[in-house]
Design goal:
It holds the Pfam family Serpin. By secondary structure, the chain is an alpha+beta fold. Helix content is 34%, strand content 30%. Strands 2-1-3-11-10-9 form a six-stranded mixed beta sheet. The model is unreliable at 1-16 and 401-438 (pLDDT under 50). Bound molecules: 2-acetamido-2-deoxy-beta-D-glucopyranose. The site of 2-acetamido-2-deoxy-beta-D-glucopyranose has 6 residues, from loops.
C-alpha cells in the first residue's frame, strides 16, 4: 500500500461549506466531481504503489482560462471533463465567486495567482482579455517568446517560484517553451496552515509503516490524543478523520482503508462510484491518532491525464479551436503541474503550480518555407574555417544540370582541396569563376 494523499482532500470540503450562492455551488460541485476523476486518472497513470499529490483546484483554475477562449468540440470536451456548468453566465459568476471566497480565508495563508504570458506578436481578442482579467483574476504580461523563449521560460519559472514561496521550482522544463509559443497560462497556489490542535514534537518517533501487506519501513510517526471529527465508511471498508487548521473551515481529511493493503481496492471502488467522499458523516470522537509526518513532491503531465479523461481536441492541431482567444490558430502544446506538500507537527505547507502552453499551429504543421529564387550570399565552411565565400546573382549553369551540380560542387570542392587542386571539372571551374578563394 502506498501512502496516498492529496490536496483534493483538504481544499474541497472547505470550499463546499462556502458554496452559498447558486453559481458558486454549481462550480464547486463541478470541481469536486472533476477532482475525483483527475486524482484517480493520475493514480492509474502513475501505477500501483506510487504516491499521488495533485491540485485539482490549480488545474481547474488554469483550464477555466483555456476554456474561456475555446469553441466547438474543444470547449465541449473541457465543459464535460471539468464538469463546468453549461450556462456561460453561471460559469463566470461561479468562478468570480470562487476567487472571492479563496481570497478571503482568515487564520491560514492561502494565496492564489493566475497569470498569462502573451507573445508580443499575438493579439488577444478584447472579450477574452476582459474575461480572464475580470472573471479569472489573471493579469496579462507581455513576453517575447519569438526571440527569447529561454529567458521567458525562466521568467515564468521565477514568477512561480516567488508565488509558491520557493516551493515549486522549474515548472517549465527546457523545450516546453519555444519560439512558436504564443501564450503560457499559469496558476500558482500556496497554502500554509497551522493545526488548531498541533502535535507534540516530543511525541514523534519512528514506527512501522506498511508499504505492502507484509513489508514495513520506519517512518517518523506523530501522535495526538484529542476529540476529532471521525467517520466510518462501511461502503469503502475505511475510516476517516479530519484535522482542521486555525481556520475551522480548512481541514485535512485522512481516509484510511481497514486493510493494510486496501488503498488500491478503495480507489477502484471510488472509480465505480461506491461512495461519494463529499458525503462523509463525521462526528466528534475522542481518538488516539498516529500519523506519519510526510513530505511529497510530484510532477503531473496533465496533457496525458486530460487526454485519458477525454479532453483531446485542445491538444490536436487539427481539432483545437481557440478562436475565442485570438485570430491566430492556437493549440495547447504542454500542460504540466507540480505539487508540494509538507505535513508535520505544526501544520501543513503546500504549493502547486499548473501551466498550459499554447503555440501557433503552423510552426509544426508546415515546415518553414525557404525558396532560394533570388540572389544570395554563400559561404562554404569547414570546421569553422571559411573555405569559400561568394554571391550568386545570375544562374550560371544550364537549368537541367542545376540540381546535380549543386550537390556535386561541395563534394568535389572538398576533394579538390584535399588532393586535386587543379581539377579539370568544368562545372567546378564554372562555379569557381564566381567565388573568391580565402
Ligand atoms: C480565526 O481565529 C480566531 C481566533 O482564534 C477564531 O475566533 C475564529 O473563529 C477563527 N476563524 C475561523 C474561520 O476559523
Amino acid at each position: 500500500m502506498a501512502f496516498t494523499t492529496g490536496l483534493l482532500i483538504f481544499l474541497v470540503p472547505f470550499i463546499a461549506t462556502m458554496a452559498s450562492s447558486e453559481p458558486l455551488a454549481a462550480v464547486v460541485k463541478g470541481v469536486n466531481d472533476f477532482t475525483l476523476d483527475f486524482y484517480l486518472t493520475t493514480a492509474e497513470k502513475n501505477g500501483p504503489g506510487k504516491n499521488v499529490l495533485v491540485s485539482p483546484l490549480s488545474a481547474a483554475l488554469v483550464t477555466a482560462m483555456v476554456h474561456a477562449g475555446a469553441k466547438g468540440v474543444t470547449a465541449n470536451e473541457i465543459t464535460k471533463g471539468l464538469r463546468f456548468p453549461e450556462d456561460k453566465a453561471t460559469l463566470e459568476d461561479g468562478f468570480r465567486a470562487l476567487h472571492g471566497v479563496l481570497a478571503n480565508t482568515p487564520n491560514v495563508t492561502l494565496e492564489i495567482a493566475n497569470r498569462i504570458y502573451l507573445d508580443k506578436t499575438t493579439k488577444m481578442k478584447p472579450d477574452y482579455t476582459k474575461t480572464v482579467t475580470e472573471v479569472h483574476k489573471s493579469d496579462v504580461e507581455s513576453a517575447d517568446f519569438m526571440h527569447n523563449h529561454e529567458s521567458e521560460r525562466q521568467t515564468i519559472n521565477n514568477w512561480v517560484l516567488k508565488k509558491t514561496h520557493d516551493k515549486i521550482k522549474d515548472l517549465l522544463s527546457p523545450g516546453m517553451v519555444t519560439p512558436a509559443t504564443s501564450m503560457v497560462l499559469v496558476n500558482a497556489v500556496y497554502f500554509f496552515g497551522k493545526w488548531k490542535e498541533p502535535f507534540d514534537r516530543e511525541q514523534t518517533y519512528d514506527q512501522d509503516f506498511f508499504v505492502s501487506k507484509s513489508k514495513t519501513v520506519k517512518v517518523p510517526m506523530m501522535h495526538l490524543t484529542k476529540t476529532l471529527r471521525y467517520a466510518e465508511i462501511p461502503q469503502l471498508k475505511a475510516k476517516a478523520v479530519e484535522l482542521c487548521y486555525a481556520n475551522k473551515d480548512v481541514c485535512l481529511q485522512i481516509i484510511l482503508p481497514d486493510a493494510k493493503d486496501g488503498l488500491e481496492k478503495m480507489q477502484k471502488q471510488l472509480r465505480e462510484g461506491a461512495f461519494d467522499l463529499s458525503n462523509i458523516e463525521f462526528y466528534p470522537t475522542k481518538v488516539q491518532l498516529s500519523m506519519p509526518k510526510f513530505k511529497l513532491e510530484e510532477t503531473i503531465n496533465i496533457k496525458d491525464v486530460y487526454q485519458k479523461m477525454g479532453m483531446k481536441a485542445m491538444f490536436q492541431p487539427g481539432d483545437a479551436d481557440f478562436s475565442g482567444i485570438s485570430e491566430e490558430k492556437l493549440v495547447v502544446s504542454e500542460a504540466i503541474q507540480k505539487t508540494f506538500m509538507d505535513v508535520n507537527e505544526e501544520g501543513t505547507e503546500a504549493a502547486a503550480a499548473t501551466a498550459c502552453v499554447a503555440r501557433r499551429k503552423r510552426c509544426v504543421e508546415e515546415p518553414l518555407e525557404i525558396f532560394v529564387d533570388h540572389p544570395f550570399l554563400f559561404r562554404l565552411v569547414h570546421s569553422n574555417s571559411l573555405i569559400f565565400i561568394g554571391s550568386h546573382f545570375e544562374p550560371t549553369v544550364p537549368s537541367e544540370d542545376c540540381a546535380p551540380v549543386e550537390d556535386d560542387v561541395e563534394e568535389q570542392v572538398d576533394s579538390h582541396l584535399n588532393d586535386n587542386p587543379q581539377s579539370d571539372d568544368d562545372r567546378i571551374h564554372h562555379k569557381r569563376s564566381h567565388c573568391e578563394m580565402l
